[in-house]
Write a structure and sequence with these properties.
The protein has one domain: 3-Layer(aba) Sandwich (Rossmann fold). Helix content is about 35%, strand content about 25%. It contains 8 helices and 9 strands. Strand 6, helix 8 and strand 7 form a beta-alpha-beta unit.
Length: about 260
C-alpha cells in the first residue's frame, strides 16, 4: 500500500478538522466561527514551505496570472500571500486555487483569481491610495487591495456576507479595511473622493454616484452590461471628464438594490 507523504496527511487532517469545526460553529456569531476556523488552519507542525495551500498559491500565480501577462510585483505578491481558501466554504477549499470562480452562498461568487489580479493591476494603485470596492462578497478582493494600498472601503448588499467578510478580515488583521452593508450603487460619499474604485458586480450602466466620488486622476474598473453581455470597462477621470476603454469580456453577478432589483 502506498504511503502518503507526511505533509499531505497533515493537510488532510487539517481540512477534516476544519470541516468538523465548521459544522459545529456555523450557527454561532461569525467572529467566533472565524476564530475557530483559523485556529484549526494554523495548527501546523511544519514550516510554511510544506503547506500545500502555499504551493497551490505559487502555482496559481505562476500558471494563471503571470502566464497571462500580469507583471505588477505588488499584485503578484498579494496574490501569493492572501490565503484564498479561507474566503470560501470549507468544502470548496481544495478547489480554491483553481482557474475559475466559486460559489460563496446567497447567489454570489468569489471571482476567478486571474480576474482579481487583472482588475487590481488595472487600477495602478499607489501605497497611499484610498480605494472603494463595491461588492465585498467573500472579502478576498478587499484583502488583496489592502496588501497594496492604504485604506479600503468596501460595500456589500447582502448583510450575511458583509458580516462574514468583516469578521474574517478582522481576524486576519486587515485593519485598513472598512466594511459596510448597503447599496453599492450609491457608493460611500462621506469618505469620498476615492483614488480608485473597483466594482465586482455588473450594472447595465455606470452609476453616476460612483463617477462623482472618483477623485481627479483616479481610475475605476467596472463590469457593465446585461447578464450575458458584459464588458469590463476601465475609466479614468481627467479634468472632471471620464475616458473609458473596454478591456475584457466578463460575466459578473448583477448589481442589485436592497429590494433585489437589478440596476
Amino acid at each position: 500500500m502506498e504511503t502518503l507523504p507526511a505533509c499531505l496527511v497533515r493537510d488532510q487532517l487539517q481540512i477534516l478538522g476544519r470541516d468538523i469545526l465548521t459544522t459545529f460553529m456555523m450557527n454561532f456569531h461569525p467572529m467566533i466561527f472565524m476564530v475557530g476556523l483559523l485556529f484549526v488552519s494554523s495548527c501546523k507542525g511544519h514550516s510554511q514551505d510544506a503547506d500545500i495551500f502555499k504551493t497551490r498559491r505559487e502555482q496559481m500565480v505562476r500558471q494563471q496570472i503571470e502566464a497571462r501577462g500580469i507583471r505588477d510585483e505588488r499584485v503578484l505578491d498579494a496574490m501569493r500571500k492572501v490565503e484564498r481558501h479561507l474566503f470560501m466554504p470549507s468544502e470548496l477549499a481544495s478547489r480554491a486555487y483553481g482557474d475559475f470562480p466559486l460559489p460563496i452562498g446567497y447567489d454570489q461568487t468569489i471571482s476567478q483569481p486571474y480576474i482579481v489580479a487583472f482588475m487590481t493591476e488595472a487600477l495602478d494603485l499607489e501605497p497611499a491610495d484610498k480605494v472603494l470596492e463595491v461588492g465585498t462578497g467573500s472579502g478576498y478582493q478587499a484583502a488583496i487591495l489592502a496588501e497594496i494600498c492604504d485604506t479600503v472601503y468596501t460595500i456589500e448588499i447582502v448583510p450575511e456576507l458583509a458580516a462574514r467578510a468583516e469578521s474574517l478580515l478582522k481576524v486576519l488583521h486587515y485593519d485598513n479595511v472598512l466594511v459596510r452593508t448597503g447599496d453599492g450603487y450609491q457608493g460611500w460619499p462621506e469618505h469620498s473622493p476615492f483614488d480608485a474604485i473597483i466594482v465586482t458586480c455588473s450594472p447595465t450602466h455606470v452609476p453616476e454616484p460612483l463617477v462623482a466620488q472618483l477623485a481627479e486622476g483616479g481610475k475605476m474598473i467596472i463590469p457593465v452590461g446585461e447578464q450575458f453581455n458584459q464588458s469590463l470597462v476601465l475609466m479614468e477621470k481627467r479634468k472632471g471628464r471620464l475616458s473609458q476603454t473596454s478591456v475584457l469580456a466578463v460575466r459578473f453577478v448583477p448589481m442589485v438594490d436592497e429590494n433585489q432589483k437589478e440596476y
